[in-house]
Amino acid sequence: MIKLEGGWDEVLADVFESENYKKIRNFLKTEYFTKTIYPPMHDLYNCFRFTPYNAVKCVILGQDPYHNPGQAHGLCFSVKEGVELPPSLKNIYKEIKDDIGITEPDNYGNLTKWAVNGVLLLNTVLTVRAGAANSHKDCGWQWFTDTVIKKLSERKQPIVFMLWGGNARSKKTLIDTSRHLVLECAHPSPLSAFNGFFGCKHFSKCNAFLEKNGMTAIDWQL
């Protein structure tokens, strides 16, 4: 039985009881015991454990976890201490500096502080085989995380959704845009960052929206 706390157990109770989730769980049992899977099993649901349901102010949507050793730990775009910054995260830091003037550490990519301050760092697929990007994209995670997005969209308190790249932007249809703010642009990958990610000013726009709606702005400084 999964125990996430922070209100997620109640919100996702029907999900964890469903046949769809049981299929994901059975698939993962085989994968984790026969292959190298990231993130480690104990880190799988960190994005929920660090950010309670009612504390979510912003959702940053990633695709699937990093697939190299020591990187993924259950938060999208984040890496463990001591791990070199991936290119996409370097570009996120660059945009934060250009947008709101914050200089993030160039040798530290653990985004847990964002998570505990209300940023749900959610990948649309929560696991991956070592060295094989998108290898778990068809195991059922998309259904699971689509349901999470819908549950968040049902909340009365407004949320900012940052959708970067085509995969994330396809989730816009799951969100009530009359209540929540959806910010869209290109992915921060070096392959696309110059096509609209740089200069998007999502971080300042997020905080302006939160403050307008009576909430505390997010401290993006790590």
Description:
This protein is an alpha/beta fold. Helices cover 34% and strands 11% of the residues. The chain has helices at residues 8-11, 13-16, 19-34, 46-50, 87-100, 112-116, 141-153, 166-169, 202-212, and strands spanning 37-38, 58-62, 119-123, 128-129, 160-164, 181-185. Strands 3-2-5-6 form a 4-stranded parallel beta sheet. Strand 5, helix 8 (166-169) and strand 6 form a beta-alpha-beta unit. The mean pLDDT is 97.
> Ends: how far apart?
33 Å
Largest sheet, order of strands side by side?
Answer: 3-2-5-6
Mean pLDDT: 97
What is the helix content? 25-40%
Shape: globular
Using only CA atoms, what is the Rg? 17 Å
Order of helices and strands: HHHEHEHHEEHEHEH
Beta-strand fraction estimate = 5-15%
* Strand segment count: 6
Report the biggest beta sheet as strand number plus sense, adding barrel if it closes: 4 strands, parallel
Give the structural class: alpha/beta
Number of helices: 9
Low-confidence stretches: none
Give the helices and strands, then pairings.
Layout (H helix, E strand, L loop, with lengths): L7 H4 L1 H4 L2 H16 L2 E2 L7 H5 L7 E5 L24 H14 L11 H5 L2 E5 L4 E2 L11 H13 L6 E5 L1 H4 L11 E5 L16 H11 L10
Parallel strand pairs: 2-3, 2-5, 5-6
Antiparallel strand pairs: 1-4
